[in-house]
Amino acid sequence: MADKTEHGRQGSLTVVTGCMFSGKSEFLVAQLQEVARQGRPLAAFKHSSDNRYGHRDIASHSGHRFKAVAVPDASRIAELAGTAEVVAVDEGQFFAGNLVDVCRELAAGGKRVIVAGLDLDSWGLPFGPMPELAQTADRVIRLQAVCVRCGRPADHTQRLTPIAGQKMVGGPDCYEPRCAACFEAPPIEMRC
Ligand SMILES: [Zn+2]
């Protein structure tokens, strides 16, 4: 899927995935800071849960951040990517399925696309377009956290407060990383 442009620049799609606290945003921020340091054009996006556009930071739990544009739909990413060589998307799980086509088209056009997002929701089930995106990616970086119960590598995000839909937003006090053995899925009828 990675085509060469007329300038010979190779596009690519990289997916960074895992549970909360696995360092996805940290990875993304570090990549973006390096691209910016090299003076290369980049565009960074994250999902806005409302319909307004604006600037929001991609923030890691350890406090590193990078300025991003908040968009409600992936079609806006295609419109705003412009001449950026690197296009980064955080919170990929909140986007609709058209994120997959948008990312593939940007990569085919010669851009280096990096998408970070949760692969599993609070029920341990596939979250948004992330699994499909990972299947079509040139590279998948699957990060793990540490289970707070037993100390083993964690792939699941345990919700600690009452569920309000599939959206996973909230501070460290609302969630904790757990391994599959320690993870306790909420009742499935609460998934909407
Ligand atoms: Zn565990």
Model description:
- With 192 residues, this protein is an alpha/beta fold.
- The protein has a domain at 12-144: Rossmann fold (3-Layer(aba) Sandwich), CATH 3.40.50.300.
- Helices cover 20% and strands 28% of the residues.
- It contains four helices and eleven strands.
- It has helices at residues 24-37, 74-80, 98-108, 130-136, and strands at 12-18, 42-47, 54-59, 65-71, 86-90, 112-118, 139-142, 145-146, 153-154, 156-159, 175-178.
- The strands form three sheets. A seven-stranded mixed beta sheet has the order 3-4-2-5-6-1-7. The chain has a two-stranded antiparallel ribbon with strand order 8-9. A two-stranded antiparallel ribbon has the order 10-11.
- β5, α3 and β6 form a beta-alpha-beta unit.
- The longest helix is centred in the first third of the chain and has 14 residues, at 24-37.
- The chain is globular.
- The protein starts with 11 loop residues before the first strand and ends in a 14-residue tail after the last strand.
- The relative contact order is 0.21.
- Residues 1-6 have low confidence and may be disordered.
